[in-house]
Amino acid sequence: MRRMRSSAAFVAAAVVAGGLALATPALADPTPAGTFRQLVGVGSDTTQDVLNALAGDTVNGTGYAATAVKSANGAGIASYDAIEPGTGSTTSTIVTRSGGTAFTRPNGSGNGQKALSASLTGDKFPANGGTSIKGQVDFARSSGGPSTSGSALTYIPMARDAIGVAVRGSALDSLTKQQLFEIYSGSLTELNGQTLHPKIPQDGSGTRKFFLAAIGMSTTPLGANVKVVQENQANAALTEDGALVPFSVGSWIAQNNGVSPDYSKAAAAAGGHLASITLPNDSGATSPVTTVNGKLAPVQAYYENSTFGRDVYNVVPSRAIDPISVFFDKDLYDVFVTSGSHTAELASDSAEKVISAFGFVNEPYNGSVNLQAKHALPGGLEGLSSANTVPAAPALKATVDDAGLKLSWTAPAATPLPLTDYRVTLTDADGAVVAAKDVVATTTSYSFTGLATGTYTATVTGYNIVGGGADATWTGAVKYASTTTATAAPTAYGTTPKVAVTVAGSHGVKPTGKVTVKEGSTTLGTGTLDASGKVTIGLSNHLKVATHALSVSYAGSAGLNASSTTAFLKITKATASVATSAPASVSHTAKAKVTVKVTATGTTPTGTVRIYEGSKVIATGTLSGGKVTVTLPKLAKGKHTLHAFYAGSATVNSKSGANFTIKST
Description:
D-Maltodextrin-Binding Protein, domain 2, ten-stranded mixed β-sheet, disordered N terminus
């Protein structure tokens, strides 16, 4: 429960702080002391009271434990006020985790967003003179959208509020946007005879930021007579006639209906009220509130107006509500996100009754994270001391296999903020997401399996706290596996060698297409598979005599990946045939001539021929065109038995011819 504190010391502190009504019951942060809950929120005081109630605490004497919002796992909300309950101090500290670090209480939407950012990055809060609060905050309450572009944070709408102008004095009953611009820029200091005393919420207030944008003063300096007060505290702001201050209409309703702690009833009793505003394109003024059964209630038309109406948000880390992120926080998702069939706990009927009781208007997009619908908003980290940069693209390599794809990559160059994870996404030819996976930063590969054949695009994106960087992409075909086998019988030089190839497809797919045989980078032959997935490829009959390592490659088809194998082909020397032609007789005074012809299949032998008588060489000759005529020496009278011997070559084996005889007379 939220403990009420009313000691004299705190009352005195409240007076010094400037404007807490002494009769107002003070609230504490989650009590008793030492109570911690899982989902810690800080920031806007516009939505702090309704979040306190949704957390199940006691707000202004009413207990909300029965309607406390929790995740499916029982995780609850711990909502810490923008200023210290009971004292109004804006410099006090909070501790949000058991054993956690004490840090300055974030006062307002902007400071809540900075605290959430620092909790993610480990930066100090507030700024460099503060404390490192890594992991101490889970979400920020915000009454306005982001001021830094990016995607690290998601602003999830919870309800509709409006900005009104709380005034004192009848001279300010009705105001226009132009008058408000002139009042706050300092050019209009009196209206309807009343001296004006404009006030503005503290720097970092979402109400202040929204109001100045609404009246066209985003870049226009405030007038010198504009004083700064704590947001949504009319007692401290409406201290004299002619005073006016931007005010959350929801907070005004909740305070004056006794739902929220009272910082405004005394001012209302003294004549303070919300001025009617002439909305753009309207001819008359519209009051932000009406009275129903004695209670203030929102005027729907004012809330829905795009100039003064506004959504209020809960800001969460984008990665924490991404179901495929390694940083996904299901408890945070359960409480805040409405997506598809999943409804945020904050969008339940009981939660929306509480939201309505605090002066807000419930909208059907409570919890929506659909950025295209423009209700949820993306935002960058706020207040970073390090560069707000995202990673470059990793270097990506892809390998296809049987109905699958393996990706591997190297990390991009380092950025000031460390890489935290990679998002791996696979889309089909129509751009539909087939699969997506988030992996931690130390992972540098991922495989997709069981894919249908077709064209896919794979994307790998590096992330840091700021968000996703440049994509590395690959586009190609994913097919089924093929297996190639090949054999080659030993073949003599001069005879055509043949490689018998068989390709088999997986998943019942019949292979079609071409097969190529290479030795090194030289193509030796190609062939087309027949209906049974086979082909025999004939090679050159002049491959050198050696054992050849052949690369046999199947090019693949529409449904099958390429595959290859190695076949070893042994080329042997050709077998020679030796034929001789010689005279039957010769005079012992003459020299006989012997013609030798050497043949081999597919080649014309070259080299040396020797004529032997017994083991003695008596003559030699060199083949030309496979033939040579050898002149023998003079033979002694008598019968001589001779034979020709072919000595062989690099491609043809040696061979002896048959014996022949010559009679010398």
